[in-house]
Amino acid sequence: MSMNVGSSARAALPLEFPQSLAVYDDYAAAQRTVDHLSDEKFPVEQCMIVGTDLKRVERITGRLTTGRVAAGGAASGAWFGVFIGLIFMLLTDEGIVATFLPTVLIGALFGLVFALTGYAATRGRRDFSSVTSVVATRYEVLVEHKSAARARELLADLPGALPNPFA
Length: 167
Hints:
Layout: H1 7-12, E1 18-24, H2 27-39, E2 47-63, H3 66-91, H4 96-122, E3 128-144, H5 148-155
Helix pairs in contact: 3-4
C-alpha cells in the first residue's frame, strides 16, 4: 500500500520518493520496525511512520448535571480570576484582599453564569461530557526509494515483521 504524501507533509518531513516498507495495525509494531533498522545501522532519517485510516473516537467521561456544569464554570472562572488577580497585584500597591480576592470571586461568578447559560442553550441535547481524539487504525513505515531494498533485507531478520511484498 503506497501512500501519496501531501505537499505540506513533504515540506515538513521530506523523503525522496518514499516507498512503503510495511503496514501494521498498531504503532508499537511500526516503531519496533524502525528501531530494528536503527539497531542494524540503517539510516533511519530516511524512514517515516505514517498513521492512516484515521477515525474520530469520543470517550464519554460522565453525565452532565446542572450542578456539575455550575461547579465547572465557577472553577474555570475562578482560575481566570486568579490570573487577572496576579497581574493586578504586580501592577498595584493594594493588598491581597483588596486586589486578588475580588478578581477570583468575580471570575467565578462570570464563569458560573456563562457555563449555565451555555448548558441551558443546549436544552438537554447533550447531557454528557466527553474527550475526543483522532486515532490511526493502520501505521505505514515509509522509506526513501534508494534505501528500500536494503531496508527490506534488514526487515526480513525481524521476527513478526510484515514487509510489504507489493512495494
